[in-house]
Amino acid sequence: MIKIAFLRRKCIGCNACVEVAPEHWVISKKDGKSYLRKSVKKGDYYLLELPDWEHERQTKAAELCPVRIIRVERGR
Ligand code: SF4
Questions:
Q1: pLDDT in tens, 44-70
Q2: DSSP per-residue letters across 12-31
Q3: Ligand 1 mean position to 8 CA, how many Å?
Q4: Is residue 15 lining ligand 1, measured as CB closer than 6 Å?
Q5: Is residue 58 within 8 Å of 70, Cβ to Cβ?
Q6: Is 35 helix (H, G, I), strand (E, B) or coil?
Q7: Which domains occur in the chain, in start order?
Q8: pTM of the model
Q9: In this structure, which residue's CA is closest to atom 4 in ligand 1?
Q10: DSSP code for 29
């Protein structure tokens, strides 16, 4: 598994993550920020676990995020 942690309040709605993985990232019509589908809010972060094969794509989304608010880690 991989673990994604997303600091949503700092999102600037640039759409880069959505272009990389539209099944998981979507821009909210309410506030223009990205939303990580099926994630769970914990404090300031939205957390989600995905299968290992998502690692490359989600890492790419994290690298393309201009404000660096997506963190991707390998789970144990
Ligand atoms: S790439 Fe980063 S700043 Fe851009 S929409 Fe996604 S989370 Fe927000």
A1: 999 999 999 999 999 999 999 999 999
A2: ----HHHHH-TTTEEE-TTT
A3: 8
A4: yes
A5: yes
A6: strand
A7: 2-74 (3.30.70.20)
A8: 0.95
A9: 14
A10: T
